[in-house]
Write a structure and sequence with these properties.
The chain has 3 helices and 5 strands. It is α+β, with helices and mostly antiparallel strands. It has helices at residues 79-110, 118-125, 130-148, and strands spanning 18-21, 30-33, 38-42, 53-58, 70-72. The protein has one domain. It is elongated.
């Protein structure tokens, strides 16, 4: 916590995050779009047990009603929303790290590192959602199975 009990937030902590505010028309007042395209609806107290923080889909599959929702700066968000964004970002990083470890283990064990090119590897673990990482690993495993049989 910073001075006066406020969170210490740096602009770069929220780089690539886009936020829309519907002015309180619904419990999930804030629509938060992450750099991966993953989108969440959040209440002002999204970090609390009685708050709202729900995954609503990839940005390409949802519709933002611009007559109600206005784009706002992350700085204008309540601390509860900022805390939840930071938490979700940290979980995304952990998920990618675990997925990368699993993939490296599988490729090392089966000696099939040639199945994935370095540029594909960077793309897979660069800025991918959990679903994209899972799909990438699944595709690699399918290719490995084809080569084995």
């Amino acid at each position: 916590m910073g001075e006066g009990g406020r969170m210490n937030n740096k602009k770069e902590d929220f780089e690539g995050i886009t936020v829309y505010d519907n002015g309180g028309a619904t419990a999930d007042r804030y629509t938060v779009i992450f750099p991966t395209g993953d989108t969440y609806g959040m209440s002002r107290d999204a970090d609390m047990p009685n708050g709202v923080c729900m995954y609503i889909g990839h940005k390409d599959s949802i519709c933002i009603d611009h007559t109600i929702e206005k784009r706002i700066d992350v700085d204008a968000l309540p601390d509860g929303v900022k805390k939840q964004i930071k938490y979700l970002l940290s979980q995304e990083v952990k998920t990618k790290q675990y997925a990368e470890r699993i993939l490296n283990f599988v490729l090392d064990e089966l000696d099939d590192r040639d199945l994935i090119k370095s540029d594909e590897y960077d793309e897979l673990f660069g800025c991918a959602s959990f679903d994209e990482v899972a799909e990438g690993i699944n595709n690699i495993l399918k290719e490995m199975m084809k080569r084995r049989w």
